[in-house]
Amino acid sequence: MRLVFKILALPFVLVTGILYLVCKFLVITSGAVLGILSGIVFLASLVLFFAAGLWAGLSWLVIAFLISPYGLPMAAAWLTGKIGGINYALKDFIFS
To answer: Whole-prediction pTM value?
Structure first.
């Protein structure tokens, strides 16, 4: 019976492994691109503080944080780590 579960889990290992590699690549590339973009948005928010007022500057500052490497890319990296953990657990189940 355990052999049947191992055979059934094998496609999930393959799918999560491919998904993990794709997500890892996307997290690395998006972190680099969005890091540069968040710096530009931050500078624009500083200009907006003086030109348009407090609320416009704060709203763009929040957007700059969300696209910075500590905002949404960090959430994507956390999710990618969870997928990698699931993949590792499935591999451990199959090959033990």
So the answer is: 0.62
The position carrying tokens 């033990």 is 96
Angle between helices 72-94 and 2-51 (to 10 degrees): 170
CA distance linking residue 85 with residue 20, whole number of Å:
9
Instruction: Express each pLDDT in 10-24 by its tens digit.
Output: 888 888 889 888 888
The DSSP output letter for 70 is: T
Q: What is the pLDDT of residue 71?
A: 83
- Rounded Cα–Cα distance for residues 92 and 27 (Å): 25
Reported as half-sphere exposure (CB side, CA atoms, 13 A), residue 17 has a value of: 10
Angle of the 54-67 helix axis to the 2-51 helix axis, nearest 10: 150
